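Throughout our pipeline, every protein is held as a single compact record rather than as scattered files. Such a record has a labelled line for the sequence and another for the backbone structure tokens. This encoding replaces a full spatial description with a residue-level series of whole-number codes. For reference, a complete record is included directly beneath this paragraph.
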Amino acid sequence: MSDLVFWQWGLILVSSLVLFLLSPYAKDTNQFFNAFQKRGTPNTFVLMGSLIISWIFAKSITNAANLGLEFGIVGGIAYAGYYVSFAVAGFIIYQMRVKAKYTSIHHFLTSKFGKRAVSLFSMLIAIRLFNEVWSNTMVIGSYFGEAGSSPYYWSILIFTLLTLAYVIKGGMSSSIFTDVVQMALFTLLLGIILLTIYGPKTDFTVKDTVSSGIWSFETGLNLLFAAIIQSFSYPFHDPVLTDRGFISEPKVTLRSFLGASFLGALCIVLFSFIGIYAQSEGLVGQAAVEVGKAFGIITLLVINFIMITSAASTLDSTFSSFSKLIAVDLKLGKTLSIGRWSMVFIAFLGTIPVFLDAEILSATTISGTMVIGLTPVFIFWKGKAPKISFHLSVICGLLFGLLLVFQRFPEQLILTEGNYADLLWINVWGILCCTFLYFIPSWIKK
């Protein structure tokens, strides 16, 4: 075992043990599913930190660095476009809670569109949570060995079990508490990385960073506009985000979501600087890994630890949200036993794709397209609409998602060139069709 791998195992084992010991133990369902403690619900900064670190996935910062390598600063800003999701979700959830007194997304959907709509929606978010498990643990595996090797698989299995151990202890309480610790670690580690690439041993400057990349559709703007468009539906199929929208007081929640939108995007852009540095040095491959290797084992360990931190945060949030989906939202039994066993189930099921050669970036881009049908459902949540409107819009979005998966979208409707052009225009035309179908039943009734 190399020194690097030895120290990486040490980081995973020690950090997991510390988080397990520090995590609160949930004695009742209010603590387990709603993160309620004696001191009350999370305040603005705790909730904001939890939101940011839960969404700074291992795959997200890997993608941000790689997009910085590919497109310069335009790539980093393009990927940060997804963080508009926080502002959109924060504002709409605030309105739902204050004006209509809804207590969850499922409460809203049941009231307006009925149980069948809830079943379809729950299927979408279950797929989302399923994707989150494998797409993040695969990043961890890549730091321990080549895909398909024994070290690769063992690291994924052990990392998943260690994360499961501390979150199963306290559910949402554990998830949010450890998020605060992980956010502090992330900030510290990111600062160390930036000081390294802008340090005295390099000629890399902020001016080099800002001037990198070309502002054109072909070199990043396709992805930027696709990300912003998806932000009007993407957050609502992610219970890791929406569950946190109903925990604290409405005004606290709104402030947290708006702050997370700005700071989360900033974190992603800053992490893309690693890729921009790699581009300036002519490095090829996985940007974060190659930059770490260029600076030596200490920097590589810091980069790897930031991946471990972000992956653990997303994974524990995924487990806690899935348990709430099963036990509370779908009303299959609001007990600690159901909550904990559902975590075990999603951990097992979500690990299977690791052995099936899945692609990391596809977990974001494809699932984001498949839920564009939620756009009119939530943007026009206050308006009257028959139950069929939900189904027409959501199913239309799923069909456009399948067109992206199987690359069957007509080229004549793709109006720009370059990478992610198909992603952009499938989303543009898809949302137009979904919105049209959403309103058709109301127009017919008139």
Notes: The chain has a mean pLDDT of 91. The CA atoms of residues 370 and 401 lie 4 Å apart. Residues 297-329 form the longest helix (33 residues).
